[in-house]
Amino acid sequence: xxxxxxxxxxxxxxxxxxxxxxxxxxxxxxxxxxxxxxxxxxxxxxxxxxxxxxxxxxxxxxxxxxxxxxxxxxxxxxxxxxxxxxxxxxxxxxxxxxxxxxxxxxxxxxxxxxxxxxxxxxxxxxxxxxxxxxxxxxxxxxxxxxxxxxxxxxxx
Amino acid sequence: xxxxxxxxxxxxxxxxxxxxxxxxxxxxxxxxxxxxxxxxxxxxxxxxxxxxxxxxxxxxxxxxxxxxxxxxxxxxxxxxxxxxxxxxxxxxxxxxxxxxxxxxxxxxxxxxxxxxxxxxxxxxxxxxxxxxxxxxxxxxxxxxxxxxxxxxxxxxxxxxxxxxxxxxxxxxxxxxxxxxxxxxxxxxxxxxxxxxxxxxxxxxxxxxxxxxxxxxxxxxxxxxxxxxxxxxxxxxxxxxxxxxxxxxxxxxxxxxxxxxxxxxxxxxxxxxxx
Amino acid sequence: xxxxxxxxxxxxxxxxxxxxxxxxxxxxxxxxxxxxxxxxxxxxxxxxxxxxxxxxxxxxxxxxxxxxxxxxxxxxxxxxxxxxxxxxxxxxxxxxxxxxxxxxxxxxxxxxxxxxxxxxxxxxxxxxxxxxxxxxxxxxxxxxxxxxxxxxxxxxxxxxxxxxxxxxxxxxxxxxxxxxxxxxxxxxxxxxxxxxxxxxxxxxxxxxxxxxxxxxxxxxxxxxxxxxxxxxxxxxxxxxxxxxxxxxxxxxxxxxxxxxxxxxx
Lengths: 156, 274, 265
Ligand SMILES: Nc1ncnc2c1ncn2[C@@H]1O[C@H](COP(=O)(O)OP(=O)(O)OP(=O)(O)O)[C@@H](O)[C@H]1O
Ligand SMILES: [Mg+2]
Prior knowledge:
Number of helices of chain C: 9
Low-confidence stretches of chain C: none
Largest sheet of chain B: 6 strands, mixed
Radius of gyration of chain B: 20 Å
Largest interface: A-C, 30 and 32 residues
Radius of gyration of chain C: 22 Å
Distance between the termini of chain C: 55 Å
Number of strands of chain C: 0
Order of helices and strands of chain C: HHHHHHHHH
Number of helices of chain B: 10
Helix content of chain C: over 70%
Oligomer: heterotrimer
CATH topology of the domain at 8-89 and 168-176 and 200-252 in chain B: Rossmann fold
Bound molecules: adenosine-5'-triphosphate, magnesium ion
CATH superfamily of the domain at 8-89 and 168-176 and 200-252 in chain B: P-loop containing nucleotide triphosphate hydrolases
CATH architecture of the domain at 8-89 and 168-176 and 200-252 in chain B: 3-Layer(aba) Sandwich
C-alpha cells in the first residue's frame, strides 16, 4: 500500500478516535458543566445526611450546579460536614439553604440548593448555615405508624 | 594464537570453542583461524554444525567454552554496542534467504542502506539497482518476495547481504536450489567480490565440485570437529579416508553415514547374518 | 495406582506454577527491554504510523460495527426493563454508564486482542521462524527497536481510541433504537445521561482501563510471538495462547480496576 494511503487512513482513524473522546466528554459526560478542579467549595453541616454519597449531584431548581466532594463526621458538633464544589459559572446568595433530597420515592439522594435574598454571593470556603437533613424513610414510616396508633388509641 | 598482522582486516579465529544445545554438544573444542581476504569453504555433512559455526561468528550464539575472535576482539565478550558495530562489517546469506516477507525485493535490498545510512533516496535507488544487477535480478525489483522462486530469493538475499559492502561475508549454502547457470553466476560473484573488494568470505556448502574451483582454503568438519584443512589441492590429494569420502561423494565410508547396525540386507531379511 | 495419579497431579500443578512464574518473569524482562528501546520509534514516526495503521485502522470497522450492535441491544433490553418501573428515560444513563465504565474498554480490548493482538503474534512469530529476526540482527539492526517496540507503541495509542470509538458508537446505537425507533424522549435521554455520567469518575476511569488493557494485550501478544517455537505449528499455538491469555488478563484486570475505581471512595 502507498505511504499516502496509509497516512490518510491513520489520519481518519485518529480523527474518529478523538471525535469519540470529545463526544464522550461533552455529549455524554458533564465535562461541559464543570470539572473537578473548576469552581468553588462551600460546606454545610447536617444532622443526618441519610444515604448521600460523595459525587452526588448538587442541584438548584433541578439543574446540576455542582457535586459533593467530601463527607466527614464532625467530632465536636456530632454532625456531618458536607463539602460541595459548585461550578464557577453558578452564583448563589450568601443566605442560600441546602437540603438533602431524594430523587423520586426511592431514587438516589442529592443536595438541593435554594437561593436566598442576600446581595453578597457565596465564595470559596463559605459555610452554609441553613440546612435541612435527609428524610429517612424508616423514621417517616415509624412516625406515621406512631401517629396512626395514637390516633386509633384516642378514638377508642 | 596467530593474530592478524595487517590491521583493519577482519579475521575470524576460534580458540578452543565448544558449543552445545542443552546436553547435545554441537561444536567440540574447535580451534581454527580463517585467512583474511580469502575464500574459505567449510565442508561437512548435514547437521555437523556448519550453520551453528556461522552463528557463533555473528554473535547470535555464544560458545559454552572458548572465544570467537573477530578482528582480534572476542565476539562473545563484547558489549552490545560493539557487537552491533562488528556486525555492520559482516554480511550473512542465510540458508533459507530470510527475506522480509512484507517488503518488496527492492525494499529488502534497500533495508540495510536505509537503516544505516542517511543517503538520499536517489542514491539508494542506484545502489540497490547495482546490487540487484550483480545478482542478475535488476528486473525483479518491484516483485514481492512471495513471487520469487527459491533460487531467486537466495540471490536477492545475497544482494541484500552485500548492500553495505561488508568486510566479511558468510554464505550459508549459497548453491542449493540453484540451476547450473545461476550456480556459476553466484560462484563467479563470490569470487569477484572477494578479489575486487578484498572481502573475506566464508562458504558453507555441500557442493564440493563448484566450491573447490573458487575457494582458497578448505575446512572439513565432521561431528562438530575439524578433521582436516588446507588448500583445495591438498584436500583433493588428501589421503585421509574421511576427507576422501566426503570429496568424492562416496555413500558410505569411514565417515559413517549410518548408525552402527547390521548390514542393510540383513536388516531387510534378504541375507542371513552369518 | 491412586498414589500415582496424585503424584501426577502434583507434578502437573508444579509444572504449571513453574511455567507461570517463568512466563511472568520473562514477560516482565521482555517488556522492559521493549520499552527501553523506544528511542527509534519516536525518532522515526514513520514506524509508529505504520503500526497504528496495522493495529488501529485495521480494527476500526470491527469496533464500529460491534459497538453499534452492543448499543442497540443494550438500549432495547434496558428500555424493556426500565419501562416497567416507569423510568424509560433513564435508558440513556444505563447505556452510557454500562458502555463507558465496562463494556467499552472490556469488549474493545477483547476485540483488539483477537484482531490486532493475534496479528502481532503471528507477524513476530513468522519473522522469527523464517529467520527474518536473525537476519535483521546480522544486519546490525536491533529487531526489538525496529520491529517490536513500534508495534507496542502503535497498539498502546490505538487501544484507548478504539475503546472511545466503541463506547461512542454504542451510545449512538442506544440512541437510535430507543429515541429514533421506540420514541423515548430525546431530550430526557441526553439530559439524564449528562446528569449522571461523571467525566472524571466514569469517562476518564474507562479510558484509564483501556490504557491498562492495551498495555497488557500488547505485552502478551508480542511476548508470545517472540517466545514461540519457530515452526508453523508453534506460531499457530502462540496465536491461540495470545487470544486466550489476553482475554483472561483483560477480565481479571477489569475486576481489579473496577474494585479500585468504582467502589467506596
Ligand atoms: N535451536 C536448536 N535447538 C536444538 N538443537 C539445534 C538447534 N538448531 C540446530 N540444532 C542441532 O544442531 C546441529 C547442528 O545444526 P546446524 O544447523 O549447525 O547444522 P548444519 O551443519 O548447518 O546442517 P545443514 O547442512 O543441514 O544445514 C543439528 O544436529 C541440529 O539438530
Ligand atoms: Mg545449515
